[in-house]
Amino acid sequence: MEKKKPLILLSNDDGVSAKGINELIRGLREVGDIIVMAPDGPRSGASGAITSEHPVRFCKVHEEEGLMIYKCNGTPVDCIKLALHAIVPRRPDVVIGGINHGDNSAVNVHYSGTMGVVIEGCLKGIPSIGYSLCNHFADADFSPLLPYVRRITEEVIENGLPVGVCLNVNFPNTSVYKGVRICRQTNGTWDKEWKCCQHPRGGEYYWLTGEFVNFESDAEDTDHWALKHGYVAITPTQIDVTAYGVMNELKSWDLNV
Amino acid sequence: MEKKKPLILLSNDDGVSAKGINELIRGLREVGDIIVMAPDGPRSGASGAITSEHPVRFCKVHEEEGLMIYKCNGTPVDCIKLALHAIVPRRPDVVIGGINHGDNSAVNVHYSGTMGVVIEGCLKGIPSIGYSLCNHFADADFSPLLPYVRRITEEVIENGLPVGVCLNVNFPNTSVYKGVRICRQTNGTWDKEWKCCQHPRGGEYYWLTGEFVNFESDAEDTDHWALKHGYVAITPTQIDVTAYGVMNELKSWDLNV
Hints:
The structure is a homodimer. Chain A is α/β, with parallel strands linked by helices. Chain A has six helices and 13 strands. In chain A, the strands form three sheets. The first copy, chain A, has a nine-stranded mixed sheet with strand order 3-4-2-1-5-6-7-13-8, with helices on both faces. A two-stranded antiparallel sheet of chain A has the order 9-12. In chain A, helix 2 (76-86) runs parallel beside helix 3. The longest helix of chain A has 14 residues, at 146-159. The first copy, chain A, starts with 6 loop residues before the first strand and ends in a 6-residue tail after the last helix. At the A-B interface, helix 2, helix 3, helix 4, strand 10 and strand 11 of A face helix 2, helix 3, helix 4, strand 10 and strand 11 of B.
């Protein structure tokens, strides 16, 4: 009996029409059967948001042998939840978010809708990977990274991932990579985050923008360092955010009233 | 010279009119000067979402000695970013999210807009606390927990928190607590998450709902166990989500192409 092809569930936060997810489909077409459930428009910065205040709908937009594409009016996380509930014929072998138009390394993991997809897949017990390119332009060139996307995806399908751990994979904006590095999340923060504009009818409005400040730019084991030096950065990311290291200290506080 | 009163920055994900945040103001009124920047309506489940696709505005809705209240059309995280950029006269001593109408223990931390507020405060280097009550009704009784909110907040203002660590504090839905427990995040997931309904003009739509499945309901060191047994659960939560424990294993994979 022929071995069943892997089933791959894809989503993103740039929307179903974005170049990144269509390049991802192209790169993984030979690896397995693909189901896409992606937002019907941009949801950049959606993080792990879910839709609780209004109902969610989806519809099929494309179907061919081994590839089904759906769009949804919800968040990236909604897309994964809904696909797993209402679409997939069997449990996917891997959940993938991306390819994101923009860098999701360092603390960006906390804002990223791409990583929202990936963390949701991981919460559902499925090996999950986020792919992001450090280039936010709509026409970015994703072709140099597709062989790596395929290699990493095949390896994850083959080996699985430890329970509660997913991968945050970021690619530098170059055409040739120096190699792949397993990294930790860079410590830093965003600064100068708002551009204030005058509304023609009076009052002010603000656009979110900003500069990332790296608190440890010389640390060679961080994802930001790897990207800056031309490496593919893989940051293993965990679901359990407990700060175990401070539990004993907190237990010494007198917090009863 | 009189010691300056602490400055407290509040936000939430249930919106500026929710009972929870107004009870939080009541509970902390004597502790310090309060600035509120909260969403203009419900943003439950907003996680760490930021607004990138449209501009954000805010306006003052209340002012009295030691209390300023603003509302904003953005996400809970936008509220903190914008308040720190455009409102606060000095660096706040503490950032607080809540009091949330609903449980943010266990994996809910990944979906919670309340914890989005708290993680954002922590990313900005400010001691930050999320308060949530395991009762999602709009008229929930918050009065039993206010003495604890005050006690924990004063302790955090006094002692600070370790860099990169914030507190996720959940209260069981009871009028008397057995005490306070320092906990770890419960391992579990959501199941049966969608209710499918028929639209009167045809087609289907889905409401997000679900049941939490606890994978370790007997584990006495978890936040879910503490809440179920009548304790206030404090889960120290960290910004760094690197899965350090799997880095060596991943380094043994051959991922170059």
